Amino acid sequence: MYSRLLSRPRGSFFLFGPRGTGKSTWIHQQIPAARTINLLREELYQELLAHPVGLREELSVVRPGSWVVIDEVQRLPQLLNEVHLQMEERKLRFALTGSSARKLRARGVNLLAGRAVRRNLHSLTPKELGADFNLTRYLQCGGIPLVITADDPQDTLKAYCETYLKEEIQAEALVRNLPGFARFLKVAALFHAQELDATHLSRDAQVARTTIQGYLEILQDTLIASELPAFEAKLRVKERRRSKLYFFDSGVVRALKSYRGPVTLEEKGALLEGLVHQWLRAHHDYQELFDSIHYWASGHSDSRVEVDFLLARGKEFIAIEVKATDRLRPEHFRGLAAIHDLKGVRRKILLYTGSRRYKTDQGIEVIPVTDFFTDLEAWL
């Protein structure tokens, strides 16, 4: 059992995260005596679907001020009306878990605005894994607790992706054309750590371009992927950059592409960049070490260079470039050298798979990626 970096709020909260990331396990560690309502239990789900006020009866034996856990609350958003009432009248505190924010946002989260904070749970980070962390294995299979603890991680990943299609998409009727969405998922996985191009996605997935944006929203609402916007301080509209797409776990990316076995050199760059994005988002949600995250690209299309991540904290920035190599060459520093003129850049960091730490004459700090994420607070 791994200790998570997420701290429990004092009052009621929503806890979102993809299935298998350990939401229920974490909550029951944090609040072991809480009354639990698990909406994955089909009999209970059907009862409350037909009679939502039945939640009041379920909670009538719970002492005022106690904790109540409702797992997979997105299956019955109408329960939030009763949750609101119980919070007001009996001062009950609720931990509400979900693997999709789509239905909740559409039907009822506003009822609890200001009364329940939001928290997110991610795949395990290097700091949480401690001595069990292995970069090669993580690139190959990811960091979902359900997968890491499985006897056969790759078979578990395959089943995980199939379950996602069946339960998160089909059961909740989020799309009508499930085969089309399955094709889209496989193609979208090829865009991991790349700029989104709806035209190419549409053509390769054989899905109408007008449908692509809805599919991308589903990926984000079900927490399977997220978009990283470009930093656009003074860009003109015609220079505006597309967002980049990142899936939440490297193992899921490979499973969606039907890749098994060791990671190839062609995969490694995008997967490592995706891991850094994943871990930065996790630390942002857990510890609020920075305010926002973007990627940066120069405005010159003929000689464009990029920096993978630009972390903002107040009026200052930390620029981070990721290279999946242990042998750095001069061209690997081009992006960080080009960002030098951006006002407010406090640190420039290059993460790589080598073992030596040093600082260049241009002030670029070179840090092994695993060192950086096992003690992130020290670096930021």
Description:
- This protein is an alpha/beta fold and 380 residues long.
- The chain folds into two domains: 108 residues, P-loop containing nucleotide triphosphate hydrolases (Rossmann fold); 250 residues, no CATH class.
- The chain contains 17 helices and 14 strands.
- The strands form three sheets. Strands 9-10-11-12-14-13 form a six-stranded mixed beta sheet. A five-stranded parallel beta sheet has the order 2-3-4-1-5.
- Strand 9 and strand 10 form a beta hairpin.
- Helix 9 packs across helix 13.
- The longest helix is centred in the C-terminal third of the chain and has 23 residues.
- The chain starts with 12 loop residues before the first strand and ends with a helix.
- The mean pLDDT is 90.
Task: Provide the fold topology.
Blueprint: E1 13-16, H1 23-30, E2 35-38, H2 42-50, H3 54-58, E3 67-71, H4 79-89, E4 93-98, H5 102-107, E5 117-120, H6 126-129, H7 135-141, H8 145-148, H9 153-170, H10 178-190, E6 194-195, H11 198-205, H12 209-221, E7 225-228, E8 244-247, H13 250-256, H14 265-287, E9 292-297, E10 306-313, E11 316-322, H15 334-338, E12 345-352, E13 358-359, E14 364-368, H16 369-374, H17 376-379
Parallel strand pairs: 1-4, 1-5, 2-3, 3-4, 11-12, 12-14
Antiparallel strand pairs: 6-8, 7-8, 9-10, 10-11, 13-14
Helix pairs in contact: 7-13, 9-13, 10-11, 11-12
